[in-house]
Structure formats: C-alpha cells, structure tokens
Records
---
Amino acid sequence: MSRFLGVDYGTRRIGLAVSDPLGMFATALEVIQVDVPDEAVPRIVEIVRDKDVETIVVGLPLNMDGSEGDAAAAARAFASQLREAGGVEVVMCDERLSTYTAESILLEADMSRGKRKKVIDKLAAQVFLQQYLDEHS
C-alpha cells in the first residue's frame, strides 16, 4: 500500500491532491497560497507525514511540443526541495493539459470564475495524479 501526493506547482498557488492508500484513486486536497513557493514546503512535508505519503508526484509543465521551458525548470527545482525536505521519493509527471481539463470540468459544472480560481489548482493536481496512477498501476 502506498499513498501518493500530487503537487501542481505554481508561483502563487500550489494545488495538492492525494491518492487513496491503495494508490488507485486521486482526490483533490487543498490549495496553498504563497508569496514565494518555498513557503509551501513545510506544509507539504506535514501532509506527507500525516497521510503516510510514500511518493510525491510533481507536475512537469512541458510545452506542447514536449520541450522544457522556464516553468519546467522551476518545477524541477521545487521537486528537488521537496526531495530534500520530505525524505520520500519525488517523481515528475507530464502535466500538459491538466489545467485545461480541470477548467473544462469546472465550466461544465457551471462554476463561477471566482470559485474556479480557488479550486482549479487542486483539481489540476488531481487530474495529473490520476493519470500517473493509471499509468503506473
């Protein structure tokens, strides 16, 4: 049994999703509002410990052609911080279109723009974490 934590890295908001203990289903967890992304590390480490997370899955924002830009480099640097602080395995997962998928889900649910902004990041984390779980089951 291994639990996974999905991390949708952002410079202002970091979305989190967690798997069930069997590592089969992802659920949106929370959004951490930050001024500097480093501020989120202690909270993420706390969740890793509280939820018995064995693997952190950080979204890798690749360009549509699969290349890496500045956002991917920042996500990789944040993943390194989590690896050092969390003491668990940290892997990267292609997150292309996860925010688009999450936005589509919320629009279909007829959610207002203000409410969407509050939950989009954790839903995006859920989308790519579920994709990761499906690919690695």
---
Amino acid sequence: MTQIENKAYGTEAAAFEDLHRAFSAFRETNDDRIGQIEQRLSADALTEEKLMRIDRALDETKGRLDRLTLDAARPRIGADRKDDAASREHKSAFLTYMRAGEAGGLKSLEAKTMAAASGPDGGYLVPQPAEREILRRMAQISPMRAIANVVEISTHSLRRAFSWAGPQAGWVAESDPRPQSANQQISDMTFPAMELYAMPAATQTLLDDAVVDIEQWIADEVSVAFAEQEGAAFVKGDGVNKPTGFLNYPMAQQSAWSFGKLGYIDTGVAGAFAAASPSDILFDLVYALKAGYRQNARFMMNRKTQSAIRKFKTTTGEYLWEPPATLGAAATLMNFPVSESEEMPDIATDSTSVAFGDFHRGYVVVDRSGVRVLRDPYSAKPYVLFYTTKRVGGGVQDFDAIKLLKFGVA
C-alpha cells in the first residue's frame, strides 16, 4: 500500500495537500507509462498497477476532502440565531410532539396559521430553521441541486411559458411597434412536485434525553436520504412519481438538434474514446454549447469516467484535468468545473456518460415549501418511526443549455 493510500483522516488543509500530492504522483506515473508505450508499444504491468492504485487513492482523497468540507460547513441548527416568539412557540410544540407524541400544541398553531397539513393527512411542519438546514445540506450532497436553478413554490406544480422558436428579440425605435414573429409558438412547461419520504427510527430513550437536539437529529437523518433519492431522479428519473432526469429526455445528434431534445455528439467509437487524440471530442463538446451558456458551464460525470479522462493531456503535455486550486473549489477539466455524480452512467456502448452545460439555466428543481413529520410509535415497536416528507420536482427548462457526449458511432 502506498503512503498516499495509507493516509489517515485529518483536517481539510491536510486532505487538500494530500490531494495535490496524489495528483503529482499520478502525473509522474502516467508520464512513465506513456514513455514506456512510446518506447516499447506497451506499458510495464507494474507501472499500470501503480497508476491504478494512485488513481484510486486520488479518488479516495478527493472524497475525504469533500466530506471534511461538508462537515466544516455544518453549523448546529439555531446557532447564533434569534428566534421570534412565534418561532419559539412552534419549536417548543414540535419538540413536545417529537418526544412525547403530544400534538395539541401543533394543531393549535397550524389552525391559527391556516396550514393545510394535519396529523392524520400528512404530519406537521418542522420548524423553519430545521427545514432550511435540511435543504442546505441536500444542496451540498446532491450534485444537481447544487448547480441547478432551485425554485420554491407553495402550489402543487410550477408552470412556465416558453417559445418553441426561442425568445424573440430585436432592435426598435422608442415609438416603433413591437411586432411578434409570425412563427412564434408559445406553450408552457409544467414541473409537478412529487412526494419524497424518509422514515428514520429512534428509541424512546433517545427521545427522552434532554441533551439530544431533536431538530438536529431529524436533519441529520433525512438530509442524506433525501439528497440521494432526488440526486438520482434529477439525472435519470423517469418522471413517474418522481422528477424527470435530464438523461431521460429525447436526444438528437447536435447537427439535427431541435427544441424539446437534448443535443449530443458522439465519440465515433462504441463504448470508448477514439484511440487517436481522444481528448479532441471534449473540445467538440465544449464548443457545441453556445458562447452565452459556456460562461457558467461545467462538466458532469461519475468517478469512473473522470478517472479515464484524468489521463488526457494537451499536445504540449499539460493535463486537462486539474485538482481543486483552493479549499472548497471543484476539480476542473479544461478550466471548467467538474461536478461528480455517481448517477451518471459508466462508459459503455451508446452511453451518455459526460454532460456539459449551464445547468442553472438548463435544469430547474422545484421545492414545495414545508417539510412534514408524522410520528408513528406503533408500526415498529419498541422504535418510534418518523415519516418525513417533502415535495420536490424537476426537469429540463432550457434544452439548449446542456449537451451530452455519447460513446457510440453516428
């Protein structure tokens, strides 16, 4: 085992330094491998094995750094926060319900505020600080939520008007009429909010412990579960009782792209990059996106695909992939940030394993306000279950903002 692989968990700064040391070792070993191929038409087996070990260590170190960064940015709920009287009353009633099952206080509060939820129908709203903390953590864990356009609604769905021909614009004098294009076709998109649930369990002993922060506990329990479920749906969801993932929309070759489909370019090789100049297709992918979208664009792929691309170099010998330049930053590919999502498919025949685009303009996440909890002390005795729900939807809102790389032949 290499020294890099044997590193213990430490501070963010130590993990950041480890990441850069790992990448330096990766570059040195990969350069040796390339030199061996050029001299002998094949790389030494020991060099290949060493490169694989360092590549795994690089991924593990990046994951450790991400977890440490996430933990460091996780303040306790309510820290340095001044509650108003209504918030304190809601929090007190909510804690009483969570610990003892007494819902009278919450019923009275929700009747006063004319809240739609009731205990039998859908549980009770968690206090707003806890809801904000759940959503904040989800944004840090879920790659798509972190980069998409997140819209909060109070109804069942979000509706947006759009033009099939694209937005109309032009220059006119101050007093000139503003003509509408004859071929302008206006329609609307609907993004319904679907129900997402988690069901953490606790013992009554835990609930009776006054030291335990119940708001913090429920946020810890459900944020990861919610983020994992919605993260998968935003990428590949089929739209049935869940959001529609961007990979589940109709696709068309970029040369035949039309609104309503996601454009792609292909590598020309089934399930692989081209053998000669494999990185060229990444430049084609970048420039398939219009300049206005490239300003805030990023790559998205899974760890395995990123590992393959990490070996690519320019004609002058620089690596296209670079580790984060500063703490809290993302790795970059061709100077564009890289979002890592394990929901993206592995490289295979006709897979769309790399996406590039301005996801904030291209994909919308719809959050219906309110996270609800229903206490269930009966279904799994001696444990108390907390049926926690939130409503979330999502879908592509601008089909010109995201482009895909397909590992196949035209």
---
Amino acid sequence: MVRLTVLLTAFFLLSHTACAGAEPIGRLFFSPAERAKFDQMRNTNTLDYTQIGQTPSEQVTLNGIVRRSGGKTTAWVNQMPQRENEMQPVTVLKSTAKSPVVPLQLPSGKQIRLKPGQTFDTTKGQVREGYEDTAAPLPAEALK
C-alpha cells in the first residue's frame, strides 16, 4: 500500500511538472472578432449569409434539430442555426415535440417538411435522403 502511494505521488508530481512547461493550446473555435459578429447577429435576430461568407443555395438541408422543453426549437438549416419563427432565408415553423419532421418555409413562401439529414432541391422540387448519392445514374439504371 505504501509503495502504491509513493508511485502515485511520483507519477502526479512528474506529470504536473511536464504540463507546467507546455505551451498553451490557444484559441479553440473563433477569434474574438468572429465571436462578437456572431453575438451581434444572434442578439439582433438577423442572419445575413453574406456577412459569414455564405450564399443561399438551391438546396435546403436540415442538418439537425434541438427541441427545448420550455422554449423554442433551433434547427440547423444549411449548417446555420435558426430559431423557430424567426425570419430567415428559410423559416423554421412550429411543430409538435414528438414529430421527427420539421416544417420549413422557403423564401418563395412554399412550405416543406424535412427530417434531419434530408435535402430539398428547390429546382427539382424533390426531397433527397442524406445517404443517397447525388451522382448521375449509371446507363443501365437510366433505362429502367
């Protein structure tokens, strides 16, 4: 038992001295300027895709959803968080807590319902699953 205590003490002392000389890991996520810009957009409830280097696309992908028990739903549409009933390029509409489907309103006014992982192509008017390949079908498949 004494040997174990001595070994553990030695281990912790050696690991502590090794960590003390280590370089700091620095910034993990965003710079202070980027965080301030995101905070400002969140506080004003506006999302301008041009401010963050993105443009609205012809594809609407529902990446994920968080439903709070006592608050609004937040959905990630085209990798951008959007809160329920806030005017964005794509508006997340109110849905039931048990439903796996999220109703969305497109800028055109059209309403669609997507599950997380699905993509709606606005040019074709089709919903595609996340696991489906977007490549053109092979010639044998095209003849079917």
---
Amino acid sequence: MKAVVQRVKNSQVTVDGVLVSGIGHGLMVLLGVSEDDTEKDADFLVEKIIHLRIFEDENGKLNISLMDVRGELLVVSQFTLLGDCRKGRRPSYIKAAAPEKANRLYAYFIRRARELGVETKSGVFQAMMEVSLVNQGPVTLIIDTKEKDTKNKDSKTNEPG
C-alpha cells in the first residue's frame, strides 16, 4: 500500500458538486492499493499513520500524533499512486490491485482506523472526486508498506527518540 499523508486544517470531498465528506483538523490520506497488498499491510499503514508525530507540541516541535490531538482522518482511494512512470509517457498501472480487492482493503483500512478510535471519513470508491484541503505546514509524507524497515518487527521501537 502506498499513502500520501497531508496534515490539514480541513479537507473535503465532493462528487458531482455534492459534498460527500469532510474533516476539520487532522490528516488527509490518499491511499493506493497494490496487487500484492494484504490486510497486514493495511494494519501496518493505519497504525503508522495515526501514530506519526507530525503535529506541533507546546514548544512548536513536531512531536505529537493524530491520536494525541484527537484529529480526524479523511481517506480517499487513489489507484494512480501505483502508476509507474519510468518508461514512456503513459503511466502503467499494472501493479495496482483489481477494483474488488482494492475496495475491500480500502474499506478494511477505514474500518481499522475507526476501531482504533479515530474519527474517519472517506471518499467514494471509483468515483470522479474533487478533493480540497488546506495543508498545514505544509506537512506532506509518502509512506509505502513495501519500503518498511524489516530489521525490527516492532515499528514502535524503530522510531528515533
């Protein structure tokens, strides 16, 4: 799975001019599902995202997480994150999961975030959406479960101080 994570003041999704979801202070996540992703990838990614220390503490340091600030999460499915642009001028999406699998893991990711206590909203799978946001910082990160550190199975102890 691949995610683009943006710290936002607010974000919303509209489809055909109709607001379908929106959040205030929190994180907006564009989520791409690859053909070989599993629920284990979704579990890793949701835990990583909600515990990233990318919100400012009382000293202005990026030191607290979405859970700490009780922020919201907006998750939008975006298969184009799996686009391979290395050859030619047209991206190849051969690594993207088939729609049925992608939708199942997208829904699973959202369900897991909610089970972990995060107020979570979503876009509309396979719809042509307009996504707007006010990025705070700006803070934008790209996380790919295929690039996670495999040296230490406990990712919580793998983070610096």
